[in-house]
Amino acid sequence: MVTVICVIFVYLPLSLYGLAGFLMAPKGPFSLSRIHGPLWKFILVDRRPTALWSSWIGVALAFASFILIGFTRNAKQAYYRCVEWTYDHAPKGLQNKLSGMAKISAATKERRNIQKPGAPFEQ
Hints:
The chain is mainly α. Among the domains are: 1-22 and 53-71, no CATH class; 73-114, no CATH class. 67% of the residues lie in helices and 0% in strands. It has six helices and no strands. It has helices spanning 2-24, 32-35, 53-70, 73-89, 92-95, 99-114.
């Protein structure tokens, strides 16, 4: 429910704002010679004292998406399986140093053996 509310009230308005800004920006006809002219090999840097908010909105939305979607029960189940696979395929010498991964791997295998077919994975 929180994900839906964030999408409707945060992501959608910001996306529409960005789309409106793009559509209202002046555009001219495309010219390959103008874009790839004699100064093509030089990189021009526009220095600003601070970054615009639009520069950071993608990063902020990525963090928000990870928090909203990345901590669900299914996501945690996938993370545990990745830890299990990584531990099982690690060299034996490295496995001896990864006691935390060994516990997670063993617990994941135990849950999978106990779990009834079709039942959701529980942490």
